[in-house]
Predict the structure of HD domain-containing protein.
Amino acid sequence: MTSGQLDLAAKLRFARAAVFAQLSGLPDLIRARLTAGPGTAALLTDREPPDTALTREVLELARSSYQKPLLGHCLRTWLWADLLGGRDGIKPDQELLYVACLLHDIALTDRHRPPPEAACFAVHGGEVARTTLAELGAEPSYADEVAQAIALHMNIHLPTDQGLEAHLLHAGAHLDVAGTRAGELPRQAIRDVVSMHPRAGFPDCFATLMLRESAERPNSRAALLWRLGMRLPLNHNPLDR
């Protein structure tokens, strides 16, 4: 994936991977809806994000750019990513992960929407993040890593060899949208996260944005996922149980 625009062969590969991922994830989703989840809560309700000058600037940008349901999604994405990282023994750069999670849907906002010629909102969002972070004084390599993580987060799979932070952003975002890996988390941890950042209005908000992306960028990953039935896991996410 470069520009984010899929040709026919790429669409077929992407569709096969998406369908296989949905089918292989069904047992986990069923378990998440029927059980309390494994173990004990590993996430404390007072979990605080990294507090640096950069994270404060990025949080302010997020608050001023996102609709409330989408801001909540980005904040939950970080918490899910943090929790899954702890569960899997992954030790990312915490600041970089937080910044990437906060900015990963920046191109879905009215302020930073892609131009008509853009092929993919996630790729455009990565470029917005890169430019923004450079303006805030981040090192070019740091801004590049954030941009890459954001550009890749709409992939079906994202292994750790493409970046620990990218992998965890992907995991957290897919969990919040579709419930992926929810069955691996303690039910109390899920309650804690949803209590901190309620999901009210998020499924409808995200569905509206994905429908728009599907219409405006029909050859993008978002459009293909929407046509493959994204609405179903979005509306039946076990996080809302």
About this structure: The chain has a mean pLDDT of 88.
